[in-house]
Write a structure and sequence with these properties.
The protein has an eight-stranded mixed sheet, with helices on both faces. The chain is an alpha+beta fold and 271 residues long. The protein is globular. Helices cover 34% and strands 26% of the residues. α1 packs antiparallel against α2. The protein binds L-MYO-inositol-1-phosphate.
Length: 271
């Protein structure tokens, strides 16, 4: 990568630094006050979501003043450097609200619409996942490799469901076609961590319709760098279009793609 954009490892390390700071701020917060809802009455924004994103935006402006920003909670800035940061201050907000320790700070760097580095920090446990393109993926500094399973009937799939009731109905119908053909599914509630689970091998694949770029951007580069295969929307595609985000362990991808194609997974699910 040319000097203007800096080194991919520097972008990764910046993402890790700010994500760890933000996770510590979230852990120290004493409120779970919901200040608003977004796409539906069950799509909450807490005071902590907003505070966390403000911290991330401030720190990126300090450390990377020429870079752009796309934040889930509305922080946006045009890029002058060619790098744009894609940020979810708390991915898994409902888990955060209920005190389920599966929610994360997700910070990714993208160049020309491609994610090149990122960090996902589980804000409840402090576990740090990170990657830079061509540099591998790690969890707390240890290298990550996805699983070697090839047969979909032996595969454990992570998935998720929408804040829209009509889309959840369609997702449930889709699931009835998939579940008998795989080992089992897990619904943990945070796409960023689901993608890191593919990278670490605690699930074999993940798919979900209608998530946004900030949900998957950092987890995508972490999963790819662990040997996973990904089929994802363009970063500019809004989640409202219902396109699928699909990531699978490399050896599993061909056969699982066939099973999911037959089930209709690669057809967008409207609202
Ligand atoms: C969440 C995603 C999750 C999805 C939830 C929600 P949020 O993001 O990470 O995969 O199933 O419906 O979209 O809203 O917590 O940032």
């Amino acid at each position: 990568m040319n000097s203007q954009l800096g080194d991919l490892r520097d972008l990764r390390d910046t993402a890790v630094l700010i994500a760890q700071e933000t996770a510590a701020l979230i852990r120290s917060s004493t409120t779970r006050e919901v200040m608003a809802t977004k796409s539906s009455s069950v799509d909450p924004v807490t005071v902590v979501d907003t505070m966390a994103e403000e911290h991330i935006a401030t720190r990126l402006a300090e450390l990377r003043p020429d870079d752009g920003l796309i934040g889930e909670e509305g922080n946006e800035r045009a890029s002058r450097s060619g790098v744009s940061w894609v940020v979810d201050p708390i991915d898994g907000t409902v888990n955060f609200l209920y005190g389920i320790p599966e929610y994360a700070v997700s910070i990714a760097a993208a160049v020309d619409g491609e994610v090149v580095a990122g960090a996902v920090v589980n804000a409840a446990t402090g576990v740090v996942y990170s990657a830079a393109a061509g540099e591998g993926a790690t969890r707390d500094g240890q290298p990550l490799r996805c699983t070697t399973v090839e047969d979909p009937s032996r595969a454990l799939l992570a998935t998720g469901f929408s804040y829209s009731a009509s889309r959840r109905r369609a997702q449930a119908e889709l699931l009835t076609r998939i579940l008998p053909q795989v080992r089992d599914i897990r619904r943990m509630g945070a796409a960023a961590l689901d993608l890191c689970r593919v990278a670490e091998g605690s699930v074999d694949a993940y798919y979900e319709h209608g998530i946004n770029c900030w949900d998957y951007a950092a987890g995508l580069v972490i999963a790819r760098e662990s040997g996973a295969v990904a089929r994802v929307p363009r970063l500019s595609t809004p989640g409202s279009l219902g396109e699928v985000t699909f990531v699978a362990a490399g050896p599993l991808a061909p056969a699982l793609t066939s099973v999911l194609t037959e089930a209709g997974v690669f057809t967008s699910l409207g609202r």
